[in-house]
Amino acid sequence: MSNGASPRSVPVGEIRRLGDDAVLIGVADPESARRLVRAVEGAALDDLAEVVGGLATVLVAFDPAADGPESQGLVLRKLVDHALGPSGAEALPGGDATAEGDPFVIPCVFDGPDLTEVAEIAGWSPETLVDVLTDALLTVAVVGFSPGFAYLADLPDELRRVPRRARPRPLVPAGSVALANGYAAVYPTASPGGWQLIGRTDVPLFTPFVAPFARLAAGDRVRFARVPRGVALAPQRSTEVAVSPDDRVRPAESPTTHPVFTVEEPGVRTILQDAGRRGVAALGVPAASPADPSSFRLANLLVGNPVGAGALEITARGPTLRCLRSTFVAVVGAAPDLSVDGQPVSPGRVVPITAGQQLVVGPVRDGFRSYVAVAGGFAGPEVFQSCASDQLSQLGPGPIGQGDRLWAGAMRPPLGDHLADGVSTGAIGGETIILRVLPGPHPERFAPGTFASLASARFTVDAESNRIGVRLRRDPSTHAVRLAPGPAVELDSQGMVTGAVQVPPNGEPVILLTDHATLGGYPVAAVVAAVDHGLLGQCAPGSNVLLAPIDHGQARAARHEQRRQLEAAVVGHYPLVAG
């Protein structure tokens, strides 16, 4: 199934690094990607975190706590050579079964904002475009990008040359029917996106509550059916479970959990986060872990929690909480104003709080995000074994609201006392944020010398940035990141990682944050090193950003030093018993 409009981004059989902990492997087509995914999953590689098949690549990501590609490189190379052959020739036996039965029909109103432009690209009228598209029998090539997002192949030739937009939209409505780079798709949830929008549907394509979760799977056949304008769409019956507002942030019944705070004022955007979702990226489900993993970890360690326990992530200004049961809290990151019953207390240390007292987390003073950890860890309703809130797919409870009751688990002494002097706590410490970056996997998609030239470029964080991605606006004195000449600036959509510096045709980068789409179609000029993911999460709109190129050896050494500092960061034990 060769349906993409762009030349292959990674040669068949080649393995390229994608940041600290992941690699991209080139394959021939989506069927080959699915076979290699099965081979990797069956190989029992140590510390394997995610395997995501793309249109002509396979992403293999390792546990960030392990040594990743360094330790698994030889095994991975042997696996790829066995699967594809040293010369790149396909060697895996067997293919996907041909889909049987009637195609899945998606009713669609064709009134999208890009319909006329797409018709002009194809050389047709909008009416002819709709006629041709609804006559086509399409096949699901791969599922990814966002939960349930299916790439539909076998478009007519005239529609395969429709490009992505020069600048992605910050929000595409759920149900949007779109074309780009040789494929059609439906956006199952509202999310950013760079595809051309030609219509809309109300058919639900994803539910997190009922397996297999995504309505469409690779190999399924699909048709679009025209619904006249002005006719109400009749959505299929949803299998989602209705949740009472009172129970929105309540965890499943457990003898170890209890209400610990009532929300009197929620702050700007306060959400529940834990270590995030793992092993579901192939469904299009993002990790949704903390934007600043270092501050999150330190807050939990201070109050005796496992490093991945639930905590509140605060953006810009925190909440006002009324304590329901005596406990201990710690706040780390971005130096917020903090008080208990009007008395100032310090971030970065354990704070006792008794029933009836009021905890106020005010505006941040040096950064963008802070973390409130409670002894025992905040608990909430879980989706895919995580209570994290995900901005892209809208999984999890989302921002807390006034009147919500927050729950916690059982406390696990001993608690720490405070953070050692000099420990980085999410504070930026200056007007400019310097992010160290590794080479991206697509150097041929950029003008020669682009990676090295990033050191001289200055950017400002755009107001449209969020947990999905940090959008950069270049300083007037800085040239746009230069793509290689020629029309082939887009990718065969492939797995992405946090920190990937994607460059759309307008030359202004977007750095992916932890709620990012699992597949992406813009070339990656660089990847923010894992050691600086915490700083990336502190990039507030208006911040000045510099990208500092380093190599993998430097990134590995810096990461090991950061781990050493984090392990020694918590000092003392809080005196739970007097004397």
Provide a descriptive summary of the structure in words:
With 579 residues, this protein is an alpha+beta fold. It has four domains: 15-84, Gyrase A, domain 2, CATH 3.30.1360.40; 104-226, Cyclophilin (Beta Barrel), CATH 2.40.100.10; 249-419, no CATH class; 432-565, Cyclophilin, CATH 2.40.100.10. It is built from nine helices and 36 strands. The strands form nine sheets. It has a seven-stranded antiparallel beta sheet, with no helix packed on it. Strands 27-34-31-32-29-28-35 form a seven-stranded mixed β-barrel. A five-stranded antiparallel beta sheet has the order 15-16-23-18-21, covered by helices on one side. β28 (458-461) and β29 form a beta hairpin. α1 crosses α2. The protein starts with 14 loop residues before the first strand and ends in an 8-residue tail after the last strand. Mean pLDDT is 88; it is low at 1-5, 87-99 and 235-245.
Question: What would the keywords be for this entry?
Answer:
single chain, 579 residues, alpha+beta, Gyrase A, domain 2, Cyclophilin, 4 domains, 7-stranded antiparallel sheet, 7-stranded mixed beta barrel, 9 helices, disordered N terminus
